Each structure stands twice: as C-alpha cells, then as structure tokens.
Predict the 3D structure of the following.
Amino acid sequence: MGTRIIVSTNANVAAGAGTAKTILAYKPASGVAARITKFGVSFDGTSAVDARATVDFQKKPSSAGTSTDISTEIATIEGKTTQVGGAFQNFTAEPASDASTRIMRAQLIPPTGTFETFADIALDPSEQIGLRVYGASGKNVRAWMEIELG
C-alpha cells in the first residue's frame, strides 16, 4: 500500500444556504495520482427538523478559487513522501466550473451530527477535488478526507 494521508479543516466553516460552498479541497502534487478513500463531515446543528444539507464533491475545476492554504497541516497516516500535494479550506471564491467539471457523490444529510463514508474517487495528477456543502444556512461544518497516493 502507498502513502495514506488525511486532510481536514482546522476550524469551523460557515455553511452556505442556496449556494454551494467549498469547505475543503485537495490537489495532488504534480505527477502524483491520488484516490479519496473516505470522507466525513460534521455539523453543529441541533434540530432534526432542519432541511437536509447537500454534500458533494466537485472534481476538475478549471480554477483553484480563493481559500486558506492548509497544506502544512496534511497528516501522514502511513508511508512517507514529500509529495503529498496541497490542501485548502473555507473558500471565499468558489473554484470555477467548465465542461470538464464533475459533481460526484451528492448526499442529503441532516445538518446535525456526523456523517462518514467510503468514497473511492480517483484523481489524476493535477486534478483538484473540493468537498462542498449547501443548504445548511446558519450551521458550521468541519470535514476531512482520507487519501491514498500513488
């Protein structure tokens, strides 16, 4: 097995209402393929009657968007490499979409508690993937992705 890493938000991110908000993104190092193997999100909502939040992945955006770089906080679970890629959180300008953009793994989730699942999403070298949330207005969210490199 290759190198496995975790990228995660390091602070609460305010979720959007009707507009998607990328809360966490990952881009492999140049020339390195990657696979998202698991992901999780947690919300600070307390009411079970709140509308469901949509959580999805946006793959291959044509631009990086504007965010906080958290690459120095990537944690290695297994294996060692200096080419782990970049991690980003709390986008203030969303990555742009183009004809190559794909929305993947859309889930409707109550904005209370935690949701974790397996993902199995392959990334070619230089592809970026973003974990997006919308429909959870007024809620904070945290997220993580487990990634296998190579």
